Amino acid sequence: MSEHALTQEERRCLQLWFRQAIAEVEKNEVSAQLMRRHAPTATHRAVAARRHAVHVPGHRKELVLT
What we know:
The protein has about 70 residues and is mainly alpha-helical. The chain has helices at about 10-35, 40-50.
């Protein structure tokens, strides 16, 4: 079987493809680690459900008597 040498363009294309594939795998691994580390628990959901909205009163209109 004869060996076929890759052209410079083919070699560059393969390098870019491998870099992109490796970056995608690393991104998926980091995403999975973050999801495991910061996954919401039942306690978090219960606390968030009980939390009340804070009411901030608007500015009172002041009447100016002249």
